[in-house]
Write a structure and sequence with these properties.
mainly beta, 2 helices, 6 strands, 12% helix
Length: 143
C-alpha cells in the first residue's frame, strides 16, 4: 500500500510550535497550494491543506518559516475522527515527515517587509536555496 503526499505551497499563518507533556515538538498549520489551472475569470485558485509536523520537522518549520514562507512537504494523508455534540466528525490532514525550505529568508522579507524578524540573519541557514536567476512563471509552463 502507498500513502505518499508531496505539496509545495505557502504557509497561511505563522507556525505555532507546541510541546507535549513529554517535551515532543508538535506543529499544526495550513498550506495554500495553487491549482494548476485558472478559473473562468482567469484567476488562480488555491487549496488550503491542513498539516501537522512532529519532532525535528516541526522544529525546523517553527525556527525558519513564517507566514507566507514557500515550503515543500512530503508525508502521508491521515484521517482522524472525534466526537462533538454527539456527532462524529472527521478530519483529513497531511502528516509531514520532511520539509524543504524553498526560498531564502531575504527573499521572504523582500516580498513582505512588514513581517517581524525573529533575529535570524539567514546567512547560516543550511536549508536555504540560492535565488534562481531564471525564474519561470507557471503561465509559461507547457503543462
Amino acid at each position: 500500500m502507498i500513502n505518499n503526499v508531496t505539496l509545495i505551497g505557502r504557509l497561511v499563518a505563522p507556525p505555532d510550535l507546541r510541546k507535549t507533556p513529554n517535551n515532543v515538538s508538535s506543529l499544526q498549520g495550513t498550506l495554500a497550494v495553487n491549482r494548476n489551472f485558472k478559473n473562468e475569470n482567469g484567476d488562480r485558485e488555491a487549496d488550503f491543506i491542513n498539516f501537522q509536523a512532529w519532532r525535528g520537522t516541526a522544529d525546523i518549520i517553527a525556527q525558519y518559516c513564517s507566514k507566507g514562507s514557500l515550503i515543500g512537504l512530503t508525508g502521508r494523508l491521515q484521517v482522524r475522527s472525534y466526537e462533538k455534540d454527539g456527532q462524529r466528525r472527521y478530519v483529513t490532514e497531511v502528516v509531514a515527515e520532511s520539509v524543504a525550505l524553498l526560498e531564502s529568508r531575504n527573499k521572504q522579507q523582500e516580498q513582505a517587509p512588514a513581517q517581524p524578524s525573529n533575529n535570524y540573519t539567514g546567512n547560516n541557514n543550511p536549508f536555504s536555496q540560492p535565488a534562481d536567476p531564471f525564474s519561470v512563471s507557471d503561465d509559461d509552463l507547457p503543462f
